[in-house]
Every structure is written in structure tokens, then in C-alpha cells.
Amino acid sequence: MSDSGCASCCRCCFSFILTSGLTALFMWLSLRTTNPICSIQDFYVPALNKTSNSQNTTTIYFNLKLDNPNKDKGIYYDTLNLTFYYAPNKTFPIANQSFSSFYQGHHKNAHRTETVATRGVPWKEVVAAENGSTVFRVDLVTAVRFKILAWKTKKHRLAVGADVEVNNSGEKANKKGIRLGSGAPERRCHRARLGLVVVVFTFLNLALFI
Q1: CATH 3.40.50.300 fits 34-188, yes or no
Q2: Which among 88, 99, 112, 123 is least buried, having the fewest CB atoms inside 10 angstroms?
Q3: What are the distances in angstroms from CA 64 to CA 15, 37, 193?
Q4: Any idea which of 8-17, 43-52, 166-175, 190-199 has the lowest mean pLDDT?
Q5: Mind listing the pLDDT tens digit for each residue in 165-209?
Q6: What does the alpha-carbon distance between residue 12 and residue 9 come to, in Å, rounded to a whole number?
Q7: What CA–CA distance (Å, rounded) separates 170 from 173?
Q8: Strand runs (DSSP E) across the chain, as ranges?
Q9: What is the C-alpha separation between 174 and 36, in angstroms, rounded?
């Protein structure tokens, strides 16, 4: 083979590899997903408000915010199940609340607010022992799927939670939203393996071409 033929073949191979690599990168970026961000924006416990006449009220008001950080992917939520605990005893729930499944568009947020009745909380003892703040626990469990273009990913379980500190006015001590976190690693790339498949396929084709 002449030098010009070798040069032409090398340019062809390089162009093929570059195009396939860019295709794999584009697929990986397009299919990469990020879990929703769940946070408690408001949390009010009337029984702990020493400046009001609501200390006989045994309910909790909360505002749950759900953010979809994905710019071009929607999220399908299964039923949202929230469980509340009084921090000294995190094995016995004091309240439960569920919200129906729904779809959330890309880069959108949603709020779920409710007032739930509590059970099994020794409110008089809690108020008497309060030293300026009381801690509650909020856990959220659901399953999500991501909509990417015209198809949906498989469901995966989302379980997050956080402690919420309440002051002696019965309100959330932290003025900012409290993010519900998880100890498990975030599943950020449901289909990233497809990019690897493209790369492997590229090199197999290149081997046959050479």
C-alpha cells in the first residue's frame, strides 16, 4: 500500500473513532439521571408553641417540596409514603401520611402539604422536658422512574429522611429547607452502560476494518 493510501486509511480510522466516541459521550450525557431533591420547607407542631393556646392540639403541619433537577427528563413518582417519629424513639412512628402517584416535568418542583394527627406522643412530658428545642424524624419512601425522550427507565426505590429540630414556638428551627438525605449512593446513570457498549462496538468494528 502506498504512503498516500496509508495516510487516507489512518484519517478514515481516526474519523471513525472520533465520531463513535462523541456518539458514546452524547448517549451517556443524554441518559444520565439525577434523583429528585426532597426537602421539608415548613414544619409546625402547635403543641410545642408556648405562646399560643394550641398546646392541646396533637397535630403536625408540614410542607414537603420535591425538585426535579434534570433539565430534560421527567420523573414518575409512585405513592409517596411519609413516616414521622419523635426523635427519642425512632422505632415507633407517631404519624403517617401518603400522597398519590404523579408525574413531574423536567426542571419542575412540586409541594405536598398536610396536617397529620399524631399518636402515642406524651406531649405534656415533651413540653415539660423541652430545653428550647425538640427533634422529630421524617422519612420518605417511594419509587421513581425517569422519562427520557419517548421511553421510561425501570423503577428504583427512593428512601430518604432527616431530623427536624423544632423550637419553643413549635416551628422548624432551621429557616432554610431541610433536605431529606440517604445513606445509599445516588443512582445517577441508569443507562450509562449503553455508552460502554457503543465504545466496545466501535473497537470491534475497527478491528475488523483494519
Answers
A1: no
A2: 88
A3: 51, 10, 34
A4: 190-199
A5: 999 899 999 999 999 998 654 444 444 444 444 455 455 455 544
A6: 5
A7: 9
A8: 37-49, 59-67, 73-77, 80-86, 89-99, 102-104, 109-117, 133-148, 151-152, 156-167, 169-171, 178-179
A9: 21
